[in-house]
């Protein structure tokens, strides 16, 4: 449960131009967002950069250099030759970070398969700012500092943001019933608004008890102790062979990164414990490659519209060079359904837990992430589970509704930067590291 220093919802009147940097996992995205005069409106320009696979397990220096390259390229493309004042940056860093200030965040541990040395336990903002300062954009001189020094990208980190907090704030910008922001994607997590008085970690700061503050739950780490959730042997293997055994227990059962691997491990188990039972006389060597199948593979099986499961057959031939028999195809469909249903129903538990804790009887939940947007039946299965957990009468409509969110890591990040600067202007110092520094962005 990490304090984010996002101290309240937007009112829809936020304005200004902001950069957003989204380091989610698969892609790196840079956006420039202008929150316009019209209430709740914005313009957005964005570029996506593929995150090279090697970067996930490379060095910290390579990571920061790559991020700086992307930001530099963005600025050069969209503002080449212009003299710019410093742009406030909302940096969406979707990993667990403890924050003493809004523009600060110590990475607790990498999640989602990342394993870059030298970042855990460190504040991630200073190395990013240091590298941006070092960049000189030649031949286009981009930024003339007030002292006439020609160096550095015209960017200052105004806020470090978790994707769930971004999702919460972006969704609440256009829908005031939004109380929770969720990600169901490569990882799973949620954020909600708490009162400062209910946060023991903040007791020493003597802030007003009714002041709102967004909490990043990091509930992907729920049950790391392995005492609550019933684990299958496949869950245990996933955990054992992951870069961080013992971490992200809930996430490893529900998130997109792992669904295909759970499926693969179950098939390998069938092959090994019952020789000849499935895929008899077929070459199964391709199936032996860890993480070969991703969640889209399961999604495709669940989506196969044909009675004879011909698309699943084709998928297996294409991806694994295996030709399952019809009963095997039916078993594969059933296995995919079990894994997809378990993920959706467990995901609903996280949302229900927040509603229960906050006594929320009805609200909207803003959700994003590839599993939410692309995995078949995920929404309906989650909604059904919420109904059961929260005990709604059969004739009652869904009181807690999980809806597609606004772009949290883009618009949400810009809004959080805007909300932070609004607080700087108003002299509300909670969670601001260096007021004078922040004032340069006003
Ligand atoms: C992982 C990260 C968390 C993030 C989530 C969704 O659980 O630890 O910070 O919000 O993935 O991207």
Report the total helices: 13
Distance between the termini: 31 Å
Q: How much of the polypeptide forms β-strand, as a percent range? A: 15-25%
Strand runs, count: 13
Can you list the strand order of the major beta sheet?
1-11-10-9-12-13
Q: Outline the low-pLDDT stretches.
A: 138-142, 145-149
Integer-rounded radius of gyration: 23 Å
Structure description:
- With 442 residues, this protein is an alpha/beta fold.
- Helices cover 38% and strands 17% of the residues.
- The protein is built from 13 helices and 13 strands.
- Strand 3 and strand 4 (42-50) form a beta hairpin.
- The longest helix has 32 residues, at 326-357.
- The radius of gyration is 23 Å and the shape is globular.
- Residues 138-142 and 145-149 have low confidence and may be disordered.
- The structure holds alpha-D-glucopyranose (GLC).
- Residues 94-96, 111-112, 162-164, 183, 185, 187-189, 218, 220, 251 line the site of alpha-D-glucopyranose.
Task: Characterize this entry briefly.
This protein has helices spanning 60-79, 125-134, 163-174, 233-240, 249-254, 256-273, 295-303, 310-320, 326-357, 370-374, 378-389, 408-426, 435-439; strands at residues 2-3, 16-23, 27-35, 42-50, 87-93, 97-98, 106-107, 155-161, 178-184, 188-195, 212-216, 363-368, 400-404. By secondary structure, it is α/β, with parallel strands linked by helices.
Salient structural properties:
5-stranded mixed sheet, 6-stranded mixed sheet, binds alpha-D-glucopyranose, about 450 residues, alpha/beta
Task: Please render the helix and strand layout as text.
Elements: E1 2-3, E2 16-23, E3 27-35, E4 42-50, H1 60-79, E5 87-93, E6 97-98, E7 106-107, H2 125-134, E8 155-161, H3 163-174, E9 178-184, E10 188-195, E11 212-216, H4 233-240, H5 249-254, H6 256-273, H7 295-303, H8 310-320, H9 326-357, E12 363-368, H10 370-374, H11 378-389, E13 400-404, H12 408-426, H13 435-439
Parallel strand pairs: 2-5, 5-8, 9-12, 12-13
Antiparallel strand pairs: 1-11, 2-3, 3-4, 6-7, 9-10, 10-11
Helix pairs in contact: 1-2, 3-12, 4-6, 6-7, 6-9, 7-9, 9-11
Bound molecules: alpha-D-glucopyranose.
Alpha-D-glucopyranose binds at residues 94-96, 111-112, 162-164, 183, 185, 187-189, 218, 220, 251.
């Amino acid at each position: 449960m990490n304090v984010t220093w996002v101290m309240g919802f937007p009112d829809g009147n936020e304005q200004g131009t902001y950069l957003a940097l989204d380091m989610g996992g698969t892609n790196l995205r840079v956006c420039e967002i202008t929150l316009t005069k019209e209430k709740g409106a914005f313009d957005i320009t964005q570029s996506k950069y593929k995150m090279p696979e090697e970067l996930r397990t490379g060095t910290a220096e390579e990571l920061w250099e790559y991020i700086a390259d992307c930001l530099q390229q963005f600025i050069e493309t969209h503002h080449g030759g212009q003299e710019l004042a410093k742009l406030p940056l909302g940096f969406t860093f979707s990993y667990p970070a403890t924050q003493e200030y809004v523009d600060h965040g110590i990475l607790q541990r990498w999640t989602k398969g990342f394993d870059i040395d030298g970042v855990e336990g460190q504040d991630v903002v200073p190395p990013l700012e240091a590298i941006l300062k070092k960049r000189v954009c030649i031949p286009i001189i981009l930024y003339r500092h007030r002292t006439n020094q020609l160096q550095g990208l015209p960017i200052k980190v105004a806020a470090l943001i978790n994707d769930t907090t971004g999702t919460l704030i972006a969704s609440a910008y256009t829908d005031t019933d939004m109380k929770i922001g969720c990600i169901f994607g490569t990882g799973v997590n949620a954020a909600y608004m708490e009162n400062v008085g209910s946060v023991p970690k903040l007791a020493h700061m003597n802030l007003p008890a009714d002041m709102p503050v967004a909490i990043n739950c990091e509930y992907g780490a729920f049950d790391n102790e392995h005492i609550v959730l019933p684990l299958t042997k496949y869950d245990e293997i996933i955990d054992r062979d992951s870069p961080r055994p013992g971490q992200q227990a809930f996430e490893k059962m529900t998130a997109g990164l792992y669904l295909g691997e759970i499926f693969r491990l179950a098939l390998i188990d069938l092959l090994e414990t019952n020789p000849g039972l499935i895929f008899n006389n077929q070459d199964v060597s391709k199936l032996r490659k860890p993480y070969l199948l991703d969640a889209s593979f399961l999604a495709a099986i669940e989506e196969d519209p044909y009675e004879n499961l011909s698309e699943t057959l084709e998928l297996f031939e294409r991806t694994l060079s295996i030709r399952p028999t019809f009963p095997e195809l039916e078993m594969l469909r059933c296995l995919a359904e079990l894994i997809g249903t378990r993920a959706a129903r467990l995901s609903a538990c996280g949302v229900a837990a927040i509603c229960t804790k906050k006594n929320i009887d009805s609200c909207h939940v803003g959700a994003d992430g590839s599993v939410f947007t692309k995995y078949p039946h995920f929404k309906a299965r989650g909604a059904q589970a919420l109904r059961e957990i929260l005990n709604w009468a059969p004739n009652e409509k869904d009181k807690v509704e999980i809806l597609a969110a606004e772009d949290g890591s883009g618009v949400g990040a810009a809004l959080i930067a805007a909300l932070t600067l609004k607080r700087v202007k108003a002299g509300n110092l909670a969670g601001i590291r260096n007021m004078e520094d922040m004032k340069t962005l006003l």
